[in-house]
Amino acid sequence: MIGILIAIISGTLMSLQGVFNTGVTKQTNLWLTSSFVQLSAFAVCIAAWFFTGHEGGVADLFRIDNKFMLLGGVMGAFITITVVKSMDMLGPARAVMLIVVAQLLVAYVVELFGMFGVEKVSFEWHKLAGVALAIVGIVIFKWK
Predict the structure, then answer these.
(1) How far is Cα 89 from Cα 95, in angstroms, rounded to an integer?
(2) Which among 13, 24, 35, 80 is least surrounded, fewest beta carbons within 10 Å?
(3) What does the alpha-carbon distance between residue 20 and residue 76 come to, in Å, rounded to a whole number?
(4) How far apart are CA 88 and CA 125, in angstroms?
(5) Residue burial 98-130, b: 16+ Cβ < 10 Å; e: rest
(6) Which of the 8 DSSP states describes residue 119?
(7) Which among 5, 24, 26 has a CA at the least distance from the CA of 16?
(8) pLDDT tens across 55-98, in order?
(9) Per-residue exposure over 3-41, b if at least 16 CB sit within 10 Å of its own CB, e if not
(10) In the chain, what are the domain boundaries?
């Protein structure tokens, strides 16, 4: 149950962040907004790390088995940029629907093939039907 609550909070925060970042971008520019987002996230994470007891050290990052996993921060910058641009061009609701369906498709492919150390799952038709239903929902929502 707590996992569901955390996922709902995450989705809510991601949607609001996209709206806020798009608003800031309209008054500044995309790169300044993205830089501020990443720097403020860094400051919050450093503060949280400091106040939670400094578990682990920065040197632990250099001992990661698969160094490509460290690209998450780079992806975070591109996530900020693409969310802002998509919300500006499509509006928040359409952008979020497409983002969520893309996340769902990619996450399912990662699980199906057991990529990046994720436990491999077997293909199930009802999951594919769920994704198809989500896509149909986007088409219906977008229909004028």
Answers:
(1) 8
(2) 13
(3) 16
(4) 35
(5) ebebeeeeeebeebbeeeeeeeeeeeeeeeeee
(6) P
(7) 24
(8) 778 888 888 898 998 899 899 999 999 999 999 999 998 899 89
(9) eeeeeeeeeeebbebbbebbebbeeeebeebbeebeeee
(10) 1-89, 91-144
